[in-house]
Amino acid sequence: MNVKYKMKKLGKHPLIQLLARSKGNPRTLVLIEPLWGIPYNLIAPFATLYMYTQGITDVQIGLILSISMFIQVFFSFFGGILTDKLGRKFTTMLGDFFGWAVACLIWSLSNNFWLFLAAAILNSFEQINQTAWYCLLIEDAEPEDLVGLYTWVNIGGLIAVFFAPLSGLFINSYSVVPVLRVLYLVFSVTMVLKTLITFRFCRETGQGKIRRAETRKVSILHMLAEYRHLIPRVLKDKGVMKAVAVSVILYITNMVSTNFFSLYVTQRLGISDQYLALFPILNAAVMLLFMVVIQPRMNSVKFRLPLWCGLTLYALAVSVLIFALVGHLAFVILYVFVWAAGGALVTPRKDALIQLNINPQERARINALIMASTIALSSPFGYFAGWLSSRDRRLPFVFVVVLFLTAMVIVGQIREPKLGQESNDREKE
After folding, report:
1. Is residue 171 over pLDDT 90?
2. Which helix (H) or strand (E) holds 54?
3. Which of 52, 53, 131, 139 has its C-alpha lying 20 to 30 A from 227's C-alpha?
């Protein structure tokens, strides 16, 4: 009886109800996210170490980041045009195949700077499908469901993190390089499978069909020229610009934390490599707890407050890492716990914030423009973070704290989004 009661109560959970009433693209994309999430999280804690172990220096790692981000700007800029002309579904498939399946195949063979750079550049192709994927996920969904849908996407990725210890166990037995080569090969296969499932079970969105028909006889050059009218409109929209500023800051902080955390805790704090796979699990467990238990209770809370609180937690977490004592694992665990709590509040709202502030009729091109701008503005910081790390491994994280404090100021000036209304009907700043 107690089990039946718990199951009935679980069925009434807002996230379960959202997934139950969602059909088509949102449900399919949420359910297949682990095909990307599982191999990604098996690899992510060791990706930088994989390069470093094969002789790639801190500065070279930062250089690869900056060069690949420069290429990503190019792909992101054209992502909106291709999404409109080829459709949301086909463009998503294109990016998954070339940006992940083929790139991971090259990563599995990489053993020098140039191969790692080639793989990173090819992975930049994935930026083409980012715009298409967002459109495919949300265009036929209700605006008030956006935070819930993004929460589900994050949950799918977080569940995949629990597979991370497998890579740690293998690395402990066989070392980083051979294990990562196999994992990258597995990643390539799962992304081919993800592409095939998208082809079979997803459908083009209503807005996607409209834009594809409208742009069928319009040349790419003409569509590119139309940006001269679109860009000024975006620049004049204060709501969009503030959302973009927050997005840029979070992109930079995530890039720095992802790429230099493993080096920091192993090379400066003296933590064993075998613990690297455990940190993502703790992060995922805490984020899941917050997303499933606490997040639904915040639906009645103003949109900005959880975002601001999450940024505060981010800054506190990084401060703990900066002042951590060498050899003390407890400091790193505390960092991961506080960072995860901040991420549970920030991540879904950051993604929804942009979508709630843009015109639905121009979603593809505006998303592409925002993504290209985000990467372009962030690209110099890959090299800059590498340079800081080569001087003192604490400095990239000091820089991250400053960025989080800046984001908190910006969020404090953002007007509450109008949920349930179309973006073009929202109040202008």
Report:
1. no
2. none
3. 139
Q: DSSP label at 216?
A: T
Q: Average the pLDDT over 288-303 and give the result.
A: 70
The tokens of 197 are what? Answer: 């499932």
Q: Residue 211 — φ and ψ, nearest 5°? A: -65, -35
pTM over 0.85, yes/no: no
User: How would you class 100 by CB atoms within 10 Å of its CB: exposed for 0-12, middle for 13-18, buried for 19 or more?
Assistant: buried
Residue written as token pair 């000091």 = 398
pLDDT of residue 298: 65
Quote the distance between the C-alpha of residue 421 and its chain's center: 26
User: Encoding tokens for residue 132?
Assistant: 């298409």
Q: What is the pLDDT of residues 195-210, one digit of tens each?
A: 999 999 999 988 888 8
In b/e form, how buried is each residue of 253-288, taking b as 16+ CB within 10 angstroms?
bebbbebbbbbbbbeebebebeebbbbbbbbbbbbb
Largest CA distance in the chain: 65
Query: Residue 374 has which token pair?
Result: 């985000």
Given a cut of 90, whether residue 314 has pLDDT beyond it is yes
CA 195 to chain centre: 19
Instruction: Quote the CA–CA distance of 252 and 109 in Å, as a whole number.
Output: 28
Token duo for residue 17: 């109800």
Tokens (6 digits) for 97: 């195949």
Measured between alpha carbons, how far is 386 from 393 in angstroms, rounded to an integer?
A: 9
